[in-house]
Backbone:
């Protein structure tokens, strides 16, 4: 039979994974860094994933395909759900499952270092804008390199905050702006702090955050922290004259 179904242009796909988390049926997954259709029977052809693709790699076409099978989708999603997940794991990959950590998940008290991470995932493009762990939190937007360069990242930056990570140089910055806009508009976060390296390209995260706040049409407090290549805090304070820095 001919019916509507998703088609993916692999040349345009940048592997951000946004479409995968947007597909409630788990019809898409990442294969070799590209989004792929798992099975025709999992795709309902309604295109809920289209608006989440930053490069326009997805489109709905009409072609010969077996019927959408809701029972098979339920079986597929049941296999994909991991422990303590807050939502179905659409892609079957544990790295995309939204999870909140409680006290029982913390390392032993006598461990030399204690993680202050309160949720997973942490990659910006994998965060759902309405994830429960974001609501009412201060969000820390952390450039990837800062996690290695700043030795007090858990004790002085992450503790008590939600976290999103990415690279403003190697990642698609436009995709980051779009995701941040959704998070600012929908998540219920109370502030946004950008932690970036001193190198010029890394400050692109600050500009992305400013653009997101502007597009979302809010007065969300926006702050920044600049980390030196040797691991020291060089500068910290409000962006655009609002708020006060939250670094400890």
Residues:
């Amino acid at each position: 039979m001919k019916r509507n179904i998703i088609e993916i242009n692999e040349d345009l796909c940048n592997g951000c994974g946004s479409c995968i988390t947007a597909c409630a049926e788990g019809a898409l997954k990442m294969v070799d860094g590209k989004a792929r259709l798992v099975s025709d029977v999992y795709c309902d052809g309604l295109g809920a994933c289209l608006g989440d693709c930053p490069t326009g790699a997805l489109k709905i076409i009409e072609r010969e395909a077996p019927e959408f099978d809701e029972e098979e989708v339920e079986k597929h999603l049941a296999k994909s759900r991991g422990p303590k997940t807050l939502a179905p794991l659409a892609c079957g990959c544990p790295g995309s499952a939204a999870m909140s950590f409680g006290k029982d998940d913390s390392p032993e008290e006598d461990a030399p270092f204690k993680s202050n991470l309160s949720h997973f995932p942490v990659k910006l493009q994998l965060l759902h804008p309405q994830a429960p762990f974001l609501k009412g939190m201060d969000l820390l937007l952390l450039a990837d390199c800062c996690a290695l360069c700043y030795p007090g990242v858990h004790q002085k930056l992450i503790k008590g905050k939600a976290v999103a990570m990415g690279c403003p140089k190697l990642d698609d910055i436009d995709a980051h702006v779009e995701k941040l806009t959704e998070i600012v508009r929908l998540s219920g976060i109370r502030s946004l702090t950008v932690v970036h390296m001193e190198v010029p390209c890394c400050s692109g995260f600050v500009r992305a955050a400013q653009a997101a706040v502007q597009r979302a049409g809010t007065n969300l407090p926006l702050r920044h922290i600049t980390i030196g290549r040797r691991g020291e805090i060089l500068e910290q304070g409000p962006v655009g004259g609002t708020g006060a820095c939250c670094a400890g």
